[in-house]
Amino acid sequence: MVILIDEIMQIASEIRKIIEYGTKAPSGHNTQPWKFRLCENEIQIHPDFERALPIVDPDNHALYISLGCAAENIILAGRNLGCNPDLKIEKDTDGVNFISIKVQRDSAAQKDDLFNYIEKRQVTRNAYDDTSIVSKDLKQLIDAAEFKGVHIRSFSTQEEIDQLVPFIIEGSNLQFHKKAFVNELVSRIRFSKKEVEEKRDGIWHSSMGMPGVGLVLGNLIMKKFVDTKSEAKRWKKIIRSTPTFILFLAEKDDVVHWVNTGRALQRFGLMATKLQINHAHVNMPCEEIEVRKKMALALGIEKQHPLLLVRLGYSKRMPYSYRRPVEEVFG
Ligand SMILES: Cc1cc2nc3c(=O)[nH]c(=O)nc-3n(C[C@H](O)[C@H](O)[C@H](O)COP(=O)(O)O)c2cc1C
């Protein structure tokens, strides 16, 4: 009896740990738009639409990419504990897609070294120095991220990067023209340590390299002094210091491919961490649908869907973002 209770306690603590690794995943504006549920040998990841971003992500593609990132962490953590997790996309009784991961002990389960980088990974929004990424590392990154229905294209020469620049600037301009976009973004920035410690989500000012100015001044600065012009200038500077961009292309624009893109992004981020290469998002040309289509056409990939644009490079790392505790993401 005592042994049974010990075993149950150990399983409960292992499952808690696995879910905690899931919560370490990246998500758009760090909304952490997930709810985890347990069903026998299955961990379910459901979307939390109360944490959706209807202006920047009206079709929820970024939300499901975030769930895919969390799923990949859970799979890596499960394998590390000697299980062989099996992922499927299911629908709940309301027809809403969720991720089901069956977790069973398997003596043939293979550990994956990328697990060791889950807690170290971060999005690093600094400007990078112009050190190139060596081709051996670039190949490892691309190989880590190749996934069913997801393809990776890299842009490293000046000519290649120049192809992206007009779309990055057009996407940024369109977004900063929209009051609703700025309001949604600002509502997710945590301008003081007190606020981020209370909410444990959102984009903490320190993780963006901004000083803690508090809610009122932060709102004022973002709404009065940040505009299309200042953003375009900031992006041009960042682009100049970026040696390589990576575009994630999905074969289809649906939930299965969004989740697979998330799994690919997570493996990419973990491999980058292992190789001590920093990465951050430049998603504006993928988020603005008209720009996304134009960019795909210009790059000769109009049959594919560019869902994420990421920059790579070297810089100092930033303070880590916060996460909500496991108890809050359960149910
Ligand atoms: C689907 C997706 C879209 C994202 N889009 C952006 C973006 O447009 N700009 C940005 O700076 N970060 C973006 N991020 C990064 C998140 O803001 C970041 O993951 C979150 O703040 C948590 O920080 P961490 O990844 O360092 O833990 C995105 C992440 C995901 C998964």
TrEMBL record:
Gene3D superfamilies: NADH Oxidase, putative nitroreductase (tm1586), domain 2. Keywords: Flavoprotein, FMN, Oxidoreductase. It comes from the Bacteria. InterPro entries: Nitroreductase-like (IPR000415), Nitroreductase/BluB (IPR050627). One of its GO terms (molecular function) is oxidoreductase activity. The keyword NAD does not apply. The keyword Oxidoreductase applies. Coiled coil: none annotated. NCBIfam families: Rv3131_FMN_oxido (NF047509). This is Uncharacterized protein. It comes from Salegentibacter salinarum.
